[in-house]
Amino acid sequence: MRSLSKVILGLSLLVLLLTASIEARRRRKKVHKISLNRDTDHAKLLKNLQTQTTALKTKLNVASTANATASSSSSSSSSSSSSSNGIEALINAYNTEYSGNITIGSQSFKILLDTASANLWVPSSQCTDSVCLKHNRYNSSKSTTYVANGTSFQIQYATEGSNQVILSGFLSTDTLGIGGLKVKSQTFSEITSLPTSVFNKSNFDGILGLGFPNIAIDGVTPPIQNLIAQKLIDEPIFALILNRNGSASSASNGGQLILGGTDPTLYSGCLTYVPLSQVGYWQFTVTSIVLGSNGKSLCSQCEAILDVGTSLIVAPSAALATINQQLGITAANLLNGIYTIDCNKTSTLPDLILTIARKDFVLPASSYILQYGSTCVSGFTSLHEGGQDVSSVDGVDYSNLWILGDVFLGSFYVEFDVGYKRVALAPKVSN
Ligand SMILES: *[C@@H]1O[C@H](CO)[C@@H](O)[C@H](O)[C@H]1NC(C)=O
Ligand SMILES: *[C@@H]1O[C@H](CO)[C@@H](O)[C@H](O)[C@H]1NC(C)=O
Ligand SMILES: *[C@@H]1O[C@H](CO)[C@@H](O)[C@H](O)[C@H]1NC(C)=O
Ligand SMILES: *[C@@H]1O[C@H](CO)[C@@H](O)[C@H](O)[C@H]1NC(C)=O
Ligand SMILES: *[C@@H]1O[C@H](CO)[C@@H](O)[C@H](O)[C@H]1NC(C)=O
Ligand SMILES: *[C@@H]1O[C@H](CO)[C@@H](O)[C@H](O)[C@H]1NC(C)=O
Ligand SMILES: *[C@@H]1O[C@H](CO)[C@@H](O)[C@H](O)[C@H]1NC(C)=O
């Protein structure tokens, strides 16, 4: 139960999202990168933003319309120096969803990256519902490396309001291919019951959790821990660089997931190291958050998690109210949990300043406002609009929790240090 309740929170964040140095060393060492591709069909995204009724549906329709035609030019990404280790191109859908290709056995899947959960799951060939038929399904009979497990598995997606989306299935074990690496004996979940309301339209098959083992359902060892245990990577770290639309010169490079190393050419200045305040999510204490250097305090010694599975920045509702007031956003701007804002105002809006480990991390309005054609969307939301925040999970008070999703991660180079249980942040070198 413990891990289940935690994962419920993690997945609710995912679903809400409108729903993952040493240069000389890196060349020699086992550093693996996955490149992220970009998709830019904003008119479709906007249409979906305007027609959906819940944040959950909004998120998944974002996914469904993300016409993620993977670019074949992805090999031009900046990760060429580790090409001997294999590079995969992944997809950035609308700056709100970062996913990539993996293999299980020899079967291919497109998985969403999620740092707020710790299980890997894909649909099972045993599921013959139409919703499953829309996705790649794992067929164990076709795999020579399959090992049966059979333990039952269940995971819940909390949605806004009372909707509960439950996925269920069972555990299996096979070889996982990711970033050119082959993880042996990776236990994952074959999903036999996939809710249509949600997955009819998702453009990814499954989810890859990059959180810690203590939040993994059924005590399954997550892929990162297996990569480390099997010595497939040199250092127990991974890094995430999420490229954003708008500043890119190379449209094919949506970012990278670097497994087992770090790449100082991708950030400027020094990394700021922050110890995790709690292990499970990638959670740490933020000293303060303000909007504009003279703005009201939005956070003082608050807790935050880094979540690539969440698109926006999720703030406690009181902080969100203050943010909206400062941005001139009213209830009239609310569209299904997403706030619109006049694009013309973007240039006049203050910076968001997060003080973390005595260092200021600055997000200009151009980063926290998402532009889709002539419509702009605020990068801030809260977990339960007009209702209660998630206040307590597992006895831990989350009423003050900030979820720093893709809107935040997109501006920084972030190293996730599994070994030292810390994160390291630096401004990203613009792509
Ligand atoms: C996806 O994009 C490609 C290239 O931009 C286009 O040819 C194709 O028709 C699009 N598919 C859908 C379903 O919109
Ligand atoms: C991902 O896999 C799909 C299906 O096999 C393939 O068409 C696509 O090119 C791949 N995309 C990337 C970015 O690797
Ligand atoms: C799974 O693979 C086996 C062996 O190739 C095949 O006979 C079976 O029809 C497949 N099952 C599904 C549901 O595709
Ligand atoms: C799922 O998509 C199919 C078309 O691809 C549609 O016929 C069906 O009604 C959809 N189901 C739901 C619950 O949206
Ligand atoms: C199934 O996997 C779980 C998690 O890795 C493990 O604890 C359990 O022993 C496995 N069961 C079998 C029958 O292999
Ligand atoms: C925004 O600015 C453009 C050109 O500067 C103008 O045409 C448009 O009407 C403005 N939009 C609003 C909502 O003020
Ligand atoms: C992406 O770039 C295009 C063209 O540069 C622009 O029209 C669009 O508004 C941008 N969207 C986002 C989300 O930045």
UniProtKB/TrEMBL annotation:
It holds the Pfam family Asp. GO terms for cellular component: lysosome. GO terms for biological process: proteolysis. Belongs to the peptidase A1 family. It comes from Drosophila willistoni. This is Peptidase A1 domain-containing protein. The active site is at 114, 307. InterPro entries: Aspartic_peptidase_A1, PEPTIDASE_A1, Peptidase_aspartic_dom_sf. One of its GO terms (molecular function) is aspartic-type endopeptidase activity. Keywords: Aspartyl protease, Disulfide bond, Glycoprotein, Hydrolase, Protease, Signal. PANTHER family: BETA-SITE APP-CLEAVING ENZYME, ISOFORM A-RELATED. Residues 98-426 form the Peptidase A1 domain. Residues 1-24 form the signal peptide. Disulfide bonds join 127-132.
